[in-house]
Structures are given as C-alpha cells and as structure tokens.
Design a protein that fits this description.
The complex is a heterodimer of chains A (about 400) and B (about 130). Chain A is an alpha/beta fold and about 400 residues long. A nine-stranded mixed beta sheet of chain A has the order 3-2-4-7-1-8-11-10-9, with helices on both faces. Chain A has a two-stranded antiparallel sheet with strand order 5-6. Chain B has one domain. The longest helix of chain B is centred in the first third of the chain and has 4 residues. The radius of gyration of chain B is 15 Å and the shape is globular. Chain B is mostly beta strands. Chain B has a five-stranded mixed beta barrel with strand order 5-6-7-9-8. The chains are: A alpha/beta (about 400), B mainly beta (about 130). At the A-B interface, α5, α6 and β5 of A face α1, β5, β6, β7 and β9 of B.
C-alpha cells in the first residue's frame, strides 16, 4: 500500500423493518448523506464498491446492486465492484475501496452497504447460511454454532450465562442513545434471561434481528482531497480481510485463528497495539460472539471476555467501549450494511459527533466483523482500524 | 428416500457396504492420509485424487445444543452438535436423546445410526450415546 486513505464523509439510514423501502431507496439515502457529509457530488466519485449479501435470494437482483445504487445517485461511467461475503459484505466493499485508493488507481470512492431483509419468508425462524448447506439439511443455524461456542467457553473458562447476557444489556443501553438503531427500549439482565429460548444458552434477546438499512462512506486519497478542496479528519490506518482456515478439523470453538490472524495483520498495518484502541465495533450477531471476539482481538486475555463485560469495561465510560451504537444486536443487522455502519459509528466517534454516546477524546478505533461459515470455520473476517489524523483537534 | 447431501452438495454422505449397512462415506488422500467428510475429489495438501473410505461411525461429542426454535424443514426441538469421529473428522449432526437419558455433553462416546429426520423424512446420520 503506497498511499494513505481517508474517510471524507459518512451516511446511514435508520435501521429497522420498513415495508415501503427498497434497496434503491435505502442505498440512495445513505449514499446521498455520505456525499453531502463529504461536501461532494455524485459526479466526483471515481469508483463505487457495494456490499449486499442477499439481493439475489430476496429481491431477484443477484448482480449489479452497486450499479443500481450508482444509477440512483447519478454516478455514471465508473468501475463498480459488488461484494458478497455474508455478514462481512460491507467490510469487504470497504476493503476493495481501500485497495482502489491506496494503490493509486482511484482518488475518490463511494462505499455502500445495503440490505433489505424484512420481506423474507420464514419470519421468526433463524437465517440459514450459504456456506453450511449440508449442515443446514440436518438443522444447522448460526445461533446453534454460537450456542456451541458459548457452552465450550462456559465449560473451559467458567464464563457465566449472566456475563453473556450482559453483552445484550450493555449494547441495548448504547442503542438507547442511537436514533438510527432498530431496538432502543432499555432491557435488563432478567429480560434477556427470561426471553424466548432459541438454542440454549442463547435466548431471543441474545440474537440480532433481521432488518433493512444502508450505510455509506466516502474514501479519498490526499490527491482526491486536494482536488475536491476538502480536509478529511480520519485516516483508514488498516483494512484487512481474510478467509477461514479449513484444514484443521478439531478446532477449539473458544477461539478463532482467523480473527487472531486478521487482527494481528491489522495491528501491524496500523502500527498500533490493542491497548491503543479507544473505541471498537465488535461483531455481536449473538451476545456470546462479542465475548469470544474480545479475546481474539486482544482486548483482553483468553478466557477473560465474560469478566470484561461484567465489569463494565466495554460499556460507555469503561476502559474500551465496544458497540457504542448498539451493535448488530440493537442497531440491527441488515447484512451488507453492517460492515459499513460500523465505520460510520467509529468515524462519528473520532470526529467527536456522537452526542450522548461520545467516547471522550477517542483517537483510534477498531471495527471487527465475521462473515458466514465454510466447513465449520468462519468464511470471512474483517478488521479495520481508523485513526484521527495527526494535527486535527480532539 | 432422500439421503442427506443429495440436495445440498449433489451426493449422499451415506453409503452402503456389501451387507447393505449404511456408513458415512469420507475421502482419504493416498499420500498424506487426510480424511474429509463430506468426501472431496482432490486432497488440498497433495492435489491427488482421493479414495472413498467408509467410516466406523464412532466418535465423541465435541459440543451439543438443543435447538428450541426449529429451522425450516423441522417441526419440533432437537439436539444437535459437533461429533469428532475416530478417523479425525468433525461432523455436524443430530444427536439422539431417549426419554430419561441425560442431555448430550462434551466428551461422550457416540455411534452413528442413520435415521429419518425432519418434516421431509431425509435419511441422515444421527449419533447415539454408547
């Protein structure tokens, strides 16, 4: 990577279930907001990347979602890259745009993430996973995977059911202050423990919802910023993605080598350590996932994730606030939008415009997402590090 | 009867031996001995064509969970989990729990028996505690 990449603007729709919204209306709203935030027009964009996981299954639009959104936004005659990497589709779109700018090929990129899931059938049933079709024939669902990981973590490290539920309570508390979040009414530990059992130990409030939403980010090079006459404040210090490790079959479900690998590469690329991270977005498709990922991201020692959340260290005001926008659990998880929404949240934090959920003085931020499954491992892991540019005011 | 694998990956994970008994059918690399289930055509380590072997069906539960909200194709709760088979492969499958039997848990020895599962009566490997 030869050139530094900056976040010049961000935009996001409300997340939720919107009967009249379409992929086009959601993507247009988020994209237009990001362009306006950057102070630029659609015609300034050199390249578009777009993450969307289920457009084929749900909307009969397997290809060309990015082109469609570009059409909505008046963006013409530019390369468009569509990324499908399960829950990490948006993170993959960001990674491709980072490559496009960092390599020197392009100067101004629009990254879009969008999903509209409320129109799917099978309401109330868990999503299936494209990478686990064989396992799906005998009843596999993503919550079953995380429930097994939870039971292993409880058995090996003594993590408690209450510690796992504490993730859901903490992230709901954060969502109360996020007007874009899907679920905002405060909940208690008892609410989580008494909610409908899905796959023990996970209950309904341990599981992220499906929904609709879009998020967008404008990335620029130094040259792009000069051309546009803008001064972006946030640097993309690292953008790393990786696929799973499938050779090992007797894998330990309390820790995932894929996430340790992408995290290590991201810390190296950004030249920071886990202790430098001021605020993080961590994949919490299920409450226990956040605990597992704390450990693989190095935010705490192996086995200490449950204690970390229980002690309030990952809540707003704690040592390392995680999921200040509510996380996947409460902001919502429109698959393709989530990886970009994480960047929107962290850029807001670093720009000091997070209002009542602001992490005071945040300068370095990390986003982590897992995407899908393949042969028993995660199919994708993405880690992004953002940093407030040197010399800009805190 | 539909056997598990036919609709998702194009072939059954089960195969009968000369006596007509069902086994899990895996692949084995003739050079490195890597065993894979479902069977793979080529070894990712050596690039060689793999041979098909029939597994013993014996193994130990790695972890098991009760699925309370059944996904599409199932109409009642069931136990499921990862089983580490003696030949070195891990399989995701349903685990039987007879009335009065304690819940399945980590480390318990199990044996595969094909059973019809779900609302479509698909023939699938199911593991029983031994």
């Amino acid at each position: 990577m030869t050139r530094t990449v900056y976040v010049a603007g961000t935009g996001i729709t409300a997340f939720g279930k919107f009967a009249t919204a379409s992929l086009g209306s959601l993507g247009r709203e988020a994209g237009a907001a990001a362009l306006a935030d950057a102070g630029i027009q659609g015609r300034d964009i050199d390249v578009v990347t777009c993450g969307c996981a289920r457009s084929g299954t749900l909307h009969g639009r397997e290809s060309g979602v990015g082109q469609y959104l570009g059409w909505e936004l008046g963006i013409e005659g530019v390369p468009v890259y569509n990324e499908k990497a399960f829950c990490a589709s948006g993170a993959m779109a960001l990674n491709v745009a980072h490559l496009a700018i960092g390599s020197g090929r392009h100067d101004v990129a629009l990254v879009l993430g969008v999903e509209k899931m409320s129109s799917r059938g099978g309401r109330g049933r868990p999503l299936t996973s494209d990478g686990m079709v064989l396992e799906g024939e005998v009843g596999f669902t993503p919550p079953a995977y995380y429930a097994m990981a939870a039971r292993r973590h409880m058995a090996v490290y003594g993590t408690t059911r209450e510690q796992i539920a504490a993730v859901a309570v903490k992230n709901r508390r954060a969502a109360v202050d996020n007007p874009k979040a899907q679920y905002r009414a405060p909940i208690t530990l008892d609410d989580v423990l008494d909610s409908k059992p899905i796959v023990a130990p996970l209950n309904l409030l341990d599981c992220c919802p499906t929904g609709d939403g879009a998020a967008a980010v404008v990335l620029v090079s130094e040259a792009g910023a000069e051309r546009l006459g803008i001064e972006p404040e946030i640097e993309v210090a690292a953008s790393v993605v990786g696929s799973g490790y499938y050779r090992k079959q007797d894998r330990d479900m309390t820790t995932f080598s894929l996430d340790r690998s992408t995290a290590a590469k991201a810390y190296e690329q950004a030249q920071v350590a886990p202790s430098d991270i001021d605020v993080a977005e961590v994949h919490d498709s299920f409450s226990v996932a956040e605990i597992l990922h704390y450990e693989d991201l190095g935010l705490c020692e192996p086995g200490m994730g449950g204690k970390l959340v229980q002690a309030g260290e990952t809540a707003l005001g704690g040592r390392i606030p995680v999921n200040t926008g509510g996380g996947l659990l409460n902001r919502g998880h429109p698959l393709g939008a989530t990886g970009v929404a994480q960047i929107v949240e962290l850029a807001d934090q670093l720009r000091g415009r997070s209002g009542t959920r602001q992490v005071t003085g945040a300068r370095t931020a990390l986003a982590h997402i897992s995407g899908g499954f393949q042969d028993g491992d995660f199919a994708t892991s993405g880690v992004t590090v953002l940093a407030r540019r040197h010399g800009t005011a805190a | 009867m539909i056997e598990v694998g036919v609709e998702s990956i194009g072939f059954s994970v089960l195969q009968r031996d000369a006596e007509g008994t069902y086994h899990l059918a895996a692949s084995r690399c003739p050079r490195c001995g890597d065993v894979r289930l479902p069977r793979r055509e080529h070894c990712v380590n050596d690039g060689l064509a793999c041979e098909t072997i029939l597994l013993s069906g014996k193994g130990r539960i790695y972890e098991a969970v009760l699925i309370t909200v059944p996904p599409k194709g199932f109409d009642r709760p069931f136990w499921t989990g990862y089983v580490d088979l003696d030949e070195g492969v891990r399989i995701f499958a349903q685990i039987a729990r007879a009335e009065g039997e304690p819940p399945p848990s980590h480390g318990q020895p199990v044996q595969m028996q094909p059973q019809e599962i779900g609302t479509r009566s698909v023939l699938a490997p199911v593991f029983f505690r031994i």
